[in-house]
Design brief:
homodimer; alpha+beta; 8 strands
Chain lengths: ~180, ~180
């Protein structure tokens, strides 16, 4: 069985990746390591740099994952800085900024970067389209899940099982495990 | 005369640094080079990493500068991501988020990182305290200047001359040129 190290401190992400990996005969193991995260408008660039730094430092084949919420009416805010924005102004701040906006469209995006020591990273992406709700709804998930509407329910209402089948992160990780499954490592 | 390279694409910053350098017999020269900017809550960490990468890549003694607006009532938003936030939600978005806030306090912060090839960066910081105005005022400056109140006038009203004497960036650069003036390089 092939082994790939997932560099993250987020156990939720690891759980999801492990389950997916199993279907494709890939073992996903977690490593905690603080790789440098770049500032960039583009998640691909952030994941690429992070994966290359982490695989060089750890001398292992690794994946890293970066994600963000991109709201059309706010010109892609909060985008790559979703974590900091959530920590500071939170869902309340987003709802305030969206109060008078008719265009509610938003994308959750994920980029998974895979890199072998000394190599160049390969990027796998996933996007889910939804809308920003008018108020928080649901108790599941984390971050922006309670304000991200997908088919009339928020990710906060969908629950982990429902969300994981359609999520940006699931789509990106699925592309990765499908690809690595066919690769001779 | 000592020469230090300022790695930036911003001619305004270069002009300010050159004028300051002259007073201390330091020649500041601009270099354009895209060094990696980290994601971090802490400007010092961003400036340190950037200065070390740039000085290594260019094989020169360099400075880089990073700045941000930290609003108390918004838990330090937009902070290190001020440029992206300005580009997306802008001053209009900030005023909207601050509409019902009584606590208007905000800090403009700057971190200058100096590094010699192969060395570790040294950081010089500057802060200016002000308040967020209730509307944009003034035609000078750039970015958040028209909403940053300092002594009853916004940085947008103060004009470059007035702003530069009190600004976060001026304070950080001044510490740097004073220090480098005494150093044997």
């Amino acid at each position: 069985m092939k082994t790939v190290y997932f560099v993250t401190g987020n156990m939720g992400k690891v759980k999801e990746a492990k389950a997916l990996g199993k279907e494709f005969n890939i073992e996903i193991q977690q490593i905690e390591y603080e790789y440098p995260e770049l500032q960039s408008d583009d998640l691909d660039i952030i994941a690429k740099y992070g994966a290359e730094c982490a695989s060089r430092a750890l001398n292992k084949a690794v994946i890293v994952e970066d994600a963000g919420l991109f709201i059309s009416a706010l010109r892609e805010f909060p985008g790559p800085y979703s974590a900091y924005v959530f920590k500071t102004i939170g869902n309340e701040g987003i709802l305030q900024l969206m109060a008078n906006q008719k265009d509610r469209r938003a994308d959750f995006k994920s980029a998974v970067g895979y890199c072998e020591p000394g190599g160049e990273a390969i990027i796998f992406t996933g996007t889910v389209r939804g809308e920003i709700a008018h108020e928080t709804r649901g108790e599941h998930g984390f971050g922006y899940d309670p304000i991200f509407l997908y088919d009339d329910r928020t990710f906060g209402e969908l629950g982990i099982g429902g969300k994981n089948k359609v999520s940006h992160r699931y789509k990106a990780l699925k592309k990765f495990v499908e690809w690595i499954g066919t690769k001779d490592i």
